[in-house]
Amino acid sequence: IDFNSSLKDLHDSEEENKAAYEKLIKAKREIDSAKVQIQTKEEEKANADEELLQKKQDVKDAKGSKDEDLAFAKEVKEKCAAKEKAWEQRQQTRADETQAVSKAIEVLDSDASHEL
């Protein structure tokens, strides 16, 4: 039995085992790191999905608000048009009344009315 040869074989085997162990540890660390990255990415995705849903709801709310605002604007325009028409009618009525009063004053101031 050659002890030196056996010792060398054991030593070589030990070195191979040590290298394999270190490679295994390195792979385990990479796996653990990848798991952390996966978890981080999943959290980021969940946050992004939540933000997307919130943005979609905001858009939906804004569209609803826009529709309400447009309906209100239409209603205000209609009321303004009606009030403008009423104002013009009142202005015409006042002009007619002023003209009638002026004519009445003219008639009352005339010489013919003094003779009565």
Topology overview:
Elements: H1 3-109, H2 111-115
The percent of residues in helical segments reads over 70%
Distance between the termini: 165 Å
Report mean pLDDT, rounded to a whole number: 93
What is the overall silhouette? Answer: rod-shaped
The counted number of beta strands is: 0
How would you characterize the largest beta sheet?
none
Report low-confidence residues grouped into runs of 5 or more: none
> H/E element string?
HH
What does this structure look like?
The protein is an all-alpha fold and 116 residues long. Helices cover 97% and strands 0% of the residues. The protein is built from two helices and no strands.
What keywords describe this structure?
116 residues; mainly alpha; 2 helices; 97% helix; 0% strand; rod-shaped
Provide a short characterization of the protein structure.
With 116 residues, the protein is mainly α. The protein is built from two helices and no strands.
